[in-house]
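$ run holo --ligand "zinc ion" --emit tokens
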Amino acid sequence: MRVWELARAGDSTRIGREMYEWIEDLYPLCRSMTGEGLRETLRRLARLVPLTIQEVPTGTPVFDWTVPREWNIRDAYVKNSRGQRVIDFRESNLHVVHYSVPIHTRMPLADLRPHLFTLPGHPDWIPYRTSYHEERWGFCLSHRRLLELETGEYEVCIDATLGPGSLSYGELLLEGETSDEVLIACHVCHPSLANDNLAGVALAVQLARELAGVSRRYSYRFLFLPGTIGAIAWLSLNEPSLRRIKHGLVLSCTGDAGSVTYKKTRRGDAAIDRAFTRTLQERGDEHTVLEFSPYGDERQFCSPGLDLPVGCLTRTAHGGYPEYHTSADDLALVHPWALADTFGKCLAALGILEGDRTYLSLNPKCEPHLGKRGLYRRALERGPAPDSQAMLWVLSFTDGHHSLLDIAERSGLPFQSIRAAAEALAAHGLLAEQGVIAPVPAPVNSRGARDGSRLAG
Ligand code: ZN
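-- output --
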């Protein structure tokens, strides 16, 4: 089975339910940029797909950055004068500002107050905050809880360590027929947030599992990285092999009820940009295609010195939903149907990349006689007019300068109809793939065939 057949054959109910179950399993873990929560997440993913867990030691220089110290947290709380935990890390791992330095002291509310973060506009939600690059400590809580805090003395404890260790990430390569790669990256550094991070992680895992079972032209490299520093570290450590990456995609926020958004690569006209644009147009559902903007890990992959063609697939774009980076990005925000829908569209776009070829007509002078080869009749018998139309479009543009994707765009016909037409024509010796030794054609016009063979070399 090929990738485009998988796109049609998948059981979307099972696929969506599985992804949702993985999200449920991973949701409680306290992930961060580094540390045991991240490592345990990668270990659980390694039970689903055979990824390897890589560790980059603290202090390793990676381009202009340095791998940070490892942060691990056991407990954190604020207790009132009666010894009650009024802010409790055990209730939600969002309650602590991630990468807070350890502290254990007593202080009045007035001194504690600058270390407390809330969302007055959403008084029941806990914000998600980090302090990766500044030595600070803090707590996040609902605004409603903040208003309940009495003046008086509080015991403040963040039982965390920040020290030498490593930055962990997961990597999986599915080798294909060629060493040309499709890179699929997601980030794994957020704590209990469901759509932002975990939905993309689950989608990457499901793609890896499904792609593993089919014939692949491309090799697929999956990366499960902490945001920003993870991408920078991976790119820095793998620079010599980046030239293998022909197409790339960052997955994020892929499970909410909003419609699908694809953000283009910095180049703006890469094959992956066209494959997603075409897929979303063909599907006909509401969708958005955005031009590149420097947000998310794609800006590292696309940076001018590397210039990899990496786009970004989300449903509602980053920050485009109010629950983003708050406790309301929870299990209720993601839906199995939405996860399955994103998966199906992603697989369809990969199916275009897999099926795109440039062919040469071996009978380029006037239209070949389709009827005597049974091709015209077959097209009519099958019923749908696009089959014969697709053949005529393919025959008109297989001049060595137009790929099948070019022809699909130009004709407005579904890419897979164009691909199927080209394969049928090639099977009858009427086309040869550019750069591939031409099969011996059934000679209709010997001059045409000779021309084609010469050009195909
Ligand atoms: Zn985020």
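-- notes --
The first helix runs from residue 3 to 9.
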